[in-house]
């Protein structure tokens, strides 16, 4: 995952996209040069994960990476899984408990397991992730807390840091926080939540995000995928 150039992941929430929309997203992502599909949600209601992955795989060679909110969201049909530890929170279940439950399944699967420090950043309103994970986000203006949390994650051996303002965030992660966290890390930095325009995508990438995650914006308007890709130089 990630070799120095800016990358884009399109997040698919299996509850929200019907098959026709998914087919359009798949085709446009292949045209635009999307690097990954992320699949998941903090809560999934429908039982559409495997069906979604099957459609996404029609794009050819875009890897499908699970972005699970809980242990029910594991599927052997994907290529990899973000093994998320919610390091911004202090809920032991989200830091290590769910991982103990998931570990034997993952060991037997063919999934590439990617240890990821997941940091929820306050975004102007409560998010589904904060509520479902029973954890507080890092205040949006406390760059120092974000820097130290990310540094600790790297020192613990995590391979990626993912700063997320949460799906549909009012305010995306600030460029100043992205840039300061990036400067304190040598592992790749993923940024998502509330990135709605190509301009915001470009600014987040310029600030230091290595991989951007975009969900709602492209879900509502798949034709934005090409613009998002070219905004970050793809
Ligand atoms: C160890 C395993 C396999 C699972 C647990 C993984 C952990 C600790 C997750 C904690 C953080 C968390 C709940 C992440 C889910 C993030 C996610 C996919 C968010 C997407 O947004 P939604 O929450 O679906 O937003 P909407 O409410 O807008 O649909
Ligand atoms: O849906 P959006 O706001 O693009 O957020 C994507 C992702 O970062 C959510 O976890
Ligand atoms: Mg969702």
Automatic annotation (TrEMBL):
<dbReference type="GO" id="GO:0046474">
    <property type="term" value="P:glycerophospholipid biosynthetic process"/>
</dbReference>
<comment type="similarity">
    <text>Belongs to the GGGP/HepGP synthase family. Group II subfamily.</text>
</comment>
<dbReference type="InterPro" id="IPR039074">
    <property type="entry name" value="GGGP/HepGP_synthase_I"/>
</dbReference>
<dbReference type="InterPro" id="IPR010946">
    <property type="entry name" value="GGGP_synth"/>
</dbReference>
<keyword id="KW-0443">Lipid metabolism</keyword>
<dbReference type="InterPro" id="IPR008205">
    <property type="entry name" value="GGGP_HepGP_synthase"/>
</dbReference>
<dbReference type="GO" id="GO:0120536">
    <property type="term" value="F:heptaprenylglyceryl phosphate synthase activity"/>
</dbReference>
<keyword id="KW-0808">Transferase</keyword>
<keyword id="KW-1208">Phospholipid metabolism</keyword>
<protein>
    <recommendedName>
        <fullName>Geranylgeranylglyceryl phosphate synthase</fullName>
        <ecNumber>2.5.1.41</ecNumber>
    </recommendedName>
</protein>
<feature type="binding site">
    <location>
        <begin position="215"/>
        <end position="216"/>
    </location>
    <ligand>
        <name>sn-glycerol 1-phosphate</name>
    </ligand>
</feature>
<dbReference type="GO" id="GO:0005737">
    <property type="term" value="C:cytoplasm"/>
</dbReference>
<keyword id="KW-0460">Magnesium</keyword>
<keyword id="KW-0479">Metal-binding</keyword>
<keyword id="KW-0444">Lipid biosynthesis</keyword>
<feature type="binding site">
    <location>
        <begin position="193"/>
        <end position="194"/>
    </location>
    <ligand>
        <name>sn-glycerol 1-phosphate</name>
    </ligand>
</feature>
<keyword id="KW-0594">Phospholipid biosynthesis</keyword>
<dbReference type="GO" id="GO:0000287">
    <property type="term" value="F:magnesium ion binding"/>
</dbReference>
<comment type="function">
    <text>Prenyltransferase that catalyzes the transfer of the geranylgeranyl moiety of geranylgeranyl diphosphate (GGPP) to the C3 hydroxyl of sn-glycerol-1-phosphate (G1P).</text>
</comment>
<feature type="binding site">
    <location>
        <begin position="162"/>
        <end position="168"/>
    </location>
    <ligand>
        <name>sn-glycerol 1-phosphate</name>
    </ligand>
</feature>
<dbReference type="GO" id="GO:0047294">
    <property type="term" value="F:phosphoglycerol geranylgeranyltransferase activity"/>
</dbReference>
<feature type="binding site">
    <location>
        <position position="13"/>
    </location>
    <ligand>
        <name>Mg(2+)</name>
    </ligand>
</feature>
<dbReference type="InterPro" id="IPR038597">
    <property type="entry name" value="GGGP/HepGP_synthase_sf"/>
</dbReference>
<dbReference type="Pfam" id="PF01884">
    <property type="entry name" value="PcrB"/>
</dbReference>
<feature type="binding site">
    <location>
        <position position="42"/>
    </location>
    <ligand>
        <name>Mg(2+)</name>
    </ligand>
</feature>
């Amino acid at each position: 995952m990630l070799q120095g150039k800016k990358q884009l992941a399109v997040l698919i929430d299996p509850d929200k996209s019907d098959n026709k929309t998914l087919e359009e997203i798949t085709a446009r992502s292949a045209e635009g040069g999307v690097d990954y599909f992320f699949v998941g949600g903090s809560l999934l209601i429908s039982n559409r994960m495997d069906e979604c992955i099957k459609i996404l795989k029609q794009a050819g060679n875009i890897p499908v990476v699970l972005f699970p909110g809980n242990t029910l969201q594991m599927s052997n049909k994907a290529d990899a899984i973000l093994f998320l530890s919610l390091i911004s929170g202090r809920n032991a279940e989200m830091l290590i408990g769910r991982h103990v439950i998931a570990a034997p399944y993952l060991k037997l699967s063919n999934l590439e397991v990617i240890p990821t420090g997941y940091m929820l950043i306050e975004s102007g309103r409560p998010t589904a992730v904060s509520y479902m994970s029973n954890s507080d986000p890092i205040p949006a203006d406390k760059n120092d807390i974000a820097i130290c949390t990310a540094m600790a994650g790297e020192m613990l051996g995590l391979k990626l840091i993912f700063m997320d303002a949460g799906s549909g965030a009012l305010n995306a992660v600030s460029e100043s926080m992205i840039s300061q966290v990036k400067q304190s890390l040598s592992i790749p930095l993923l940024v998502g939540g509330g990135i709605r325009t190509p301009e915001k995508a470009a600014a987040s990438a310029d600030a230091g995000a290595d991989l951007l995650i975009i969900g709602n914006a492209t879900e509502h308007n798949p034709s934005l995928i090409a613009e998002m890709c070219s905004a970050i130089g793809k």
